[in-house]
Amino acid sequence: MLYKGNRELAINGGKPVTADPVLIHKPYLDEEDFAAVDRAMRSTFVSGDGPHCRKFEEMLAEYLGAKHVLFVNSATAALELAFRVKDFPPGSEVIVPDFTYTSTALGALYNNLKIVLADVYADNGSIDVAKIKGLITAKTVAIAPVDYAGIPAEMDAVNEIARKHGLYVVHDTAQSLGSLYKGRKTGTLADISTFSFHGTKNMTTGEGGAVVTDDDALAARIRVLREKGTDKHSFLTDNRTRGFYEYIDTGNSYVQSNILGALGVSQLKKIDLMNGIRESVANYYIENLKDISEIEFIRITEGAESNWHIFGILVPAEERYWIMDVLRAEGVMANVHYSPLHMNRFYSDLATDDDMPGSVAFFRRLLRLPLHPCLTEEEQGHVVKAVRKVFAG
User: Fold this and answer.
1) Is the pTM for the entire model greater than 0.90?
2) Among the four 175, 274, 290, 294, which has the fewest Cβ within 10 Å?
3) Could you read off the pLDDT of 356-387 as tens digits, one per residue?
4) Which of the listed residues 243, 268, 293 is the one where a domain comes to its end?
């Protein structure tokens, strides 16, 4: 039971659970990572699409069970390329879940496509598949499901709708590297998928992303588009010595440095270890917080296994910010994640709160707790103790 007047709470003058803040996230970097970066720099091949980048792409393709992986400088760039490669007519419509980071929508917008927002489930933030059919028009060309918190969307249902209506599926898997849906890794569940390796993700290259597809034609063109519209990729692959390569399309500079490719190789070797630690922490939280009646945990999609990118709890909406402030006063850096797209000025003309009841309800109750592989057992204990202290009444 919540009791705001509890004198034992640090926010009311009591002693905090810990004087050392428990961070919400922190990248797992070890000596192998530092050495990999050092070796890459000393090789003097520091520009894009180098041997370490190629190695990282090969390793990730094998890990996922995918045919093509294309390393780029961000998931935002990956999403832009995923739509750019199709050359859809300007004004074509793309269905995007309302509860997602802006990059999901920007990928389509950069290609002069129109965003149509879909509501999400109030208990896990994933696109509500029952709402998709009513949004499809003669102009609809694609659906962009998102794996929020590392929890796979209901991809069987999404793909079935897409096949029936001839739609392209761009799976925003930015947060779900290593997650499974019915035994298959995310990245292999759609026409094209896009990962992020930002510093907050389960594995990191500092900044970075990847486009993943089994479609040879899509992969071939994206290799050109990400390298400023040139055939430099094949120029390097074929080890041509004529001294120049051709300009064969439009494009942009989305290749990654060989230094970050080396970090990607080192990090990917540890992805299952890092995800395993995250799962252990999540299970500890669930076991020690499950008896608090005011808390619910984010629902995992049926048939899915999460990589535990984020550990979220759903708390009473009217007290969400107070609970966050109290936890922070106790030394636990809980926070609120991003807001639904329609609540932001840029997207505010696309929908209202009444149009997106699931998205609004999920956002108003969601609170993130610290979850990363660097959490010590003591810090995990601090998180549990702080949450229990808040709800002790």
Assistant:
1) yes
2) 290
3) 999 999 999 999 999 999 999 999 999 999 99
4) 268
Beta-ladder partners of 331? none
Nearest to 187 by CA among 221, 153, 163: 153
What confidence category does residue 348 fall into, taking pLDDT thresholds of 50, 70 and 90? Answer: very high
Assess whether 209 and 229 both reside in one domain: yes
Query: What is the number of domains present in the chain?
Result: 2
Copy the structure tokens of residue 343. Answer: 């609540």
Burial label for 349, CB within 10 Å (0-12, 13-18, 19+), is: exposed
CA distance 48 to 60: 17
Q: Residue 377: helix, strand or coil by DSSP?
A: helix
Say what the pLDDT of residue 337 is: 87
Check if the beta carbon of residue 379 is closer than 8 Å to that of residue 370. Answer: yes
Contacts of 78 (CB under 8 A, 6+ apart): 70, 72, 107, 194, 195, 196, 209, 210, 211
In terms of DSSP H, where are the helices of the chain?
Answer: 31-42, 51-64, 75-84, 102-109, 129-132, 155-165, 216-225, 232-237, 258-268, 271-289, 320-329, 357-365, 377-390
| Domain region containing 325 | 10-28+271-390
